[in-house]
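Can't paste images in this forum, so I'm doing it all in text. The chain is below; anyone willing to post the predicted structure tokens underneath?
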Amino acid sequence: MFADEIADLVNSAATLVGHWRLDEESGLSAADASGRATAATLAGAASWTSGWLDGALALDGVNGYAQTTAPVVNTRTGFTVAAWAQLDYLPTRDTTAVAQPGSRAAGFQLGFDKEQGRWTLGMAAADTDTAALVRTRSDDIPNPLEWAHIAGVYDPLAGQLRVYVNGRLSTTTVTDHLSAWNATGPLQLGRTKTAGTFTGFWPGAVDDVRAYDGVLSAEHIAQLAAQ
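Text version of the structure:
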């Protein structure tokens, strides 16, 4: 069997392990539509707003977030995380739409990279305060108040991090990386963790967040972005 055929078989096995539609419009709980019953609880200044698909989670960039009660993906193996995201403005610091941290660092974080002003997927090399954040960036530039579908993929078979924006993978988004640890903290919507402290609060809105065990195919990601 050829290597690309093996990759296709592995990638076809991606399983939905979390899906937060974020359409509640009231209350402090965001239901998980995946069947795994991993609800997310709103905290800080998190609230509800209109979104790309019905409702969405509104975040103030200061202390608003939502988090699950348990981890959702294994960051040491392949995974895919996707969401519709909107920024109120272009931040002057790194900000995160979706993350799953360990005790000290981010197993992964999907959001905005201030250095180059791009969408980014980053993974800490270890669960320590000094670990490097290995990241890949899009060539698409976010615009304030404009919705975009962003998807981050960790593909251990290829040893790559990839970012898709509005269903498209561009040539500049592939970064080599092999994860050596699994982040066992709760999934975070609207923040990440750096040096043991929650940071990177998202200033804007997040909608229809999905998490998969395994590498979602480019065709499936394009279908999610076409909704």
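Residues 21 and 208 are 4 Å apart (CA to CA). Residues 1-7 have pLDDT under 50 and may be disordered.
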